[in-house]
Amino acid sequence: MWLKNLLPLLLWSSPLLQSAISNPVILGQRASVTTESQGLQDIVTWDEYSFLVRGERIVFFFGEFHPFRLPSPDLWLDVLQKVKALGYNGVSFYVNWALLEGEPGVFRADGVFALEPFFEAASEAGIYLLARPGSYINAEVAGGGFPGWLSHVDGTFRTNATGFLEATDLYMKRVGELIAKAQITEGGPVILVQPENEYTNPAGNITFPNSDYFQYVIDQIRAAGIVVPTISNDASPKGIFSPDSAIVTTHVDVYGHDSYPLGFNCEQPYNWTDNRLPTNFWTLHEQQSSSTPYSIIEFQGGSFDPWGGYGFDNCATLTNEQFERIFYKNDISFRVTMLNLYMTYGGTNWGNLGHPLGYTSYDYGAPISEDRAVLRAKYSEAKLIANFLKVTPAYITSIPMNYTNGSFASTSDIAVTPLIGNGTDADIYVVRHAAYNSMTSTPYALSVSSSAGNITIPQLKTLSDHLTLNGRDSKIHVVDYSLGNKKLLYSSAEVFTWQQYSKETVLVLYGGENETHEFAVTASQCKLRSGHPSAVTIATQDQYDVVQWQVTPDAGVVQCGDLTIHLLWRNDAYNWWVLELPASAPVSNYSLPTKTNVIINGGYLMRTARLEGGNLYLTGDINTTTTISVAGSPSFNKIYFNGKDVGTSPATLVYIKPQLNIPILSKATWSKLTWASMNSLPEIESTYSDELWTIANKTSTVNQFRPTTPQVLYASDYGYHSGSLLYRGHFSTPAGSTSLNLSLLTQGGHAYGYSVWLNSTNILQYPGISTSQNHNVTIPLSSLTPSTNYIVTILIDHLGLTENFNPGNDTMREPRGLLSYNLTTTTTSIPITWKLTGNLNGEHYIDKTRGPLNEGGMFFERQGYHLPSAPLTNTSVFPSQNDSPLAGFSGPGLRFYATTFPLDLQTPEYDIPLAFVFTNSSTTTSNGSRPTAFRAQLYINGFQFGKYVNHIGPQTVFPVPEGVLNYHGLNYVGVSLWNLEDDDSDVRVKLDGFELRTSSAPVMSGRGREVRLSYVLPRDGWSRRQGAY
After folding, report:
1. Taking every annotated instance into account, which residue ranges of this chain make up the domain Beta-galactosidase (predicted)?
2. H/E element holding 904?
């Protein structure tokens, strides 16, 4: 059908389109459908068009979510249901090796690091999973997911070097076995697995691509019992390890790639650079992997933000609903049938797990914000797009054409990419501005071929003689679009969803405000059932009813026989939901195209629907009193919402504000709490002993960054990989010398800082800047006593190990801590004996509950005083009582403050997101031009949930989830303050404001389950640590 009907259009088609039609290889024009399963399993199969699950074609529309970034397992279902409510059917997730094998040779995956609860939540939500265990993951985590101890393993990373491969074996075996048990073949949610990650851009003198290495990773996966298809993610489309590639001997089952077209600069979120919209992805796919479904494993869903950046609200704006309309529909123009949006929920880089270029929040500007709210318009826009694909099976086997300017549209300012129906299927036209970032509102008409002949849309001229594409918008027009036993001849308005029921078919269309749209159906005496008559015109032409309508905020309904068509303003469509009804096992809550949907209008969030006993049971959340209407469903009697009978449709859902029993919402009430504090820098006191510290006595290292000192000083070589680091250097002044020069080179990651003391005198404060990860300085030491012992103490902030993005570069080995030193007279170098420490016991870390990265080397951390049940009233430990961080202190140093407070909140009936907020308005220097230089860390019940750097920023709000916070009992909060102002500064380092408040409005929630604590007392609280120093 499609080629015959398209031929008349060639009279007006561009040469580009004519060339495309004459080249069936580029177009992917194939008639045969051959599924492949590699003989390992037959539940998840694929061909050149799409994946199939249990024999049904399906578009995989996934969102990225990392459970390790939300250390409250009982909230994982909440996030997954919010993903499912978008119309997505899957989630891609990383597993972070560094968190599971922080101690070499010991694999721990329990508590907040357990995978089984995540798999169970995915099954309950009906979410398929793409497992991405690495071993390398990047992911903006410290070391890219490599554990710190790997830095002292010999062998180039991400190659077939024996030392590296053997180091990965235990982790890949154990995590692979966990994933294997959760595969769809075992009744679980895992349907795909990705070996390695973004293995694309090599550096250094290595074999690349290394088939032996990649095959080793695949073999690790298969040996662990994983049988689902393997899929890759090139960082950009290069075809590496594609099953169609002839240049390698190793192949994945399905090839995929990533794309972040707008990059990661959130400074000017409305400034879209020219030529950033991909236009050649389909051509590249046909060249690189034409035998597999076109798959984008990471497409931009937000952006990370660096220290000193512009905040994630800016990143959300950069990738807002306009971005989604243009870029995601552009992906659709390439017939992508596996699309994963990175991130859909970002979470938090708690406990030092983040990379050095980012701060605590990993909100990412994603559709679901860090505190799990779904208030961003981009959440709702993504829902419209995903649901269209869900109900458009013709899309899967359509034939993508090259885009053209002026061939289908009446103006060359509009670009149109057709996806032509294969056989009798629908044709789909993706429309955008030729200049993708245009802000212009452009009128146009669309000329298409249909089963009724050639048509120019709009046909009617009553309300308008043209369509309109507003700036930074894109639309999907459909022709010969199937609605079950009915057909939509065409529609310029976009399809949100449709469903055929026993007595009617329901179709939901939408458009932008004040746009004019038109659709046509087989003549069936279409009538306006509701809406403004002046905004809708209906005429019969050539056996079709043609309906032209102007989009207004007031919805309209047109009835065409037993076809009910809802006409919505796009912003109103944001409030509509499509919920799948459960099916019998083994499908259950998982998505398949043949499942029946319920269509709901209204509510902040609709989670689930089921029919039982003749009634419709819905779960969801509301943030205000609202009315919900069931626009489409199998027949039912009553509606039950969150278990309560609310009558029939439409039903009013009454919102009752919760009693927020949060006793510490303001600075005034914080200051009234009983705080205790302690000096956390006893290391500079003359009585302090470092006898138990690690001696820096290694004379060699496998690190390619070669030391320039007689002994290796790199922290990771001695087992300290995260948090703060301390060094103590012992030396004696030569006889007759009263002055020396001390040169130091330190490195801690971008935005790090450090302080230096000679005995108990501060001699250097380096507050840090966002763009530097190291610092070289020479400090003159004067007024020294000859032939006298001195100690240099250095406190360094360690902001995470560098990622290892480029295979062969081994940047994860970039050392942290003190790299080199030189102590000299005018003629002689003076030796220094160095000792160092980080977290207590280093790789043999103490706190198994919060993991290997949560603690650093500060005194209070080594002693465990950041943990609940610490001895706050013991004045020998906390000598300062009633001393809060709101009062602070003067002079260089480090103090730790702690207190307790109760919570008693109405959960799970309400979801009440909370955040700690830091404010500070004080400035320093004589003209007050610079914010006060200090660093703070936030500990909630022992979990480090915030690193606040006052003079760099940008983060001031630190969401903390229920589970880490005890919503029904006592909470322990600790705050460290590190003054980085000079010794002669009279600035008092303090928090001008420190509040606990709701980060988003509380919602009455249908999530249903109690959130258990992520820790257990007394097991996970403070007890005296043996060997602590």
Report:
1. 395-576
2. strand 893-904
The single residue of 298, 324, 803, 962 carrying the catalytic annotation is: 298
The CB density around residue 251, as the number of other CB atoms within 10 Å, is 20
Query: What does pLDDT average to over the chain?
Result: 94
Measure the CA angle with vertex 143, ends 835 and 1013; round to 5°: 90
Q: 809-814: which pairs have CB atoms within 8 A and are 24 or more residues apart?
A: 809/203, 809/204, 810/156, 810/157, 810/204, 810/704, 812/143, 812/144, 812/146, 812/150, 812/151, 812/157, 813/151, 813/703, 813/704, 813/705, 813/716, 814/705, 814/747, 814/773
The answer to whether residue 198 is catalytic is: yes
Backbone angles phi, psi at 424, to 5 degrees: -105, 10
Q: What are the phi and psi torsion angles at 153 (to 5°)?
A: -100, 130
State how far the Cα of 348 lies from the Cα of 369, in Å rounded to an integer.
10
Q: What single letter denotes the amino acid at residue 529? A: R
Structure confidence by residue, pLDDT tens digits, 430-479: 999 999 999 999 999 999 999 999 999 999 999 999 999 999 999 999 99
What is the length of the chain? 1029
| 90-94 vs 60-65, strand pairing mode | parallel
d(Cα 351, Cα 70) in Å, to the nearest integer? 11
430's CB contacts (< 8 A; 6+ apart) are 329, 330, 332, 333, 403, 416, 417, 418, 419, 474, 475, 476
Of 398, 261, 288, nearest in space to 336 by CA: 398
Catalytic residue among 64, 101, 140, 198: 198
321-343: per-residue pLDDT in tens?
999 999 999 999 999 999 999 99
Q: What angle do CA 997, 360, 747 make, to 5 degrees?
A: 145
- Encoded tokens for 651: 């039903």
What are the backbone dihedrals phi and psi of residue 899, each rounded to the nearest 5 degrees, phi first? -155, 175
CB 686 within 8 A of CB 760: yes
What one-letter code names the amino acid at 381?
E
DSSP string, 487-549: EEEEESSEEEEEEE-SS-EEEEEEE-TT-EEEEEEE-S--EEEES-GGGEEEEEETTEEEEEE
Cα Rg of the chain (Å, integer): 31
Q: Helix, strand, or coil here: 770?
A: coil
Question: What is each CA distance from 276 to 198, 260, 280, 496, 1002, in whole angstroms?
Answer: 21, 9, 12, 27, 39
Cβ atoms within 10 A of the Cβ of 269, count? Answer: 20
| Structure confidence at residue 424 (pLDDT) | 78
Tokens 């076109």, residue located: 294
What single DSSP character describes residue 671? H
Q: What's the pLDDT tens digit per position in 15-40?
A: 333 333 333 222 233 334 445 557 89
Tell whether omega for the bond before 343 is within 30 degrees of 0, i.e. cis.
yes
Q: What is the 8-class DSSP label of residue 327?
A: I
Residue 966: pLDDT band by 50, 70, 90 thresholds?
A: very high
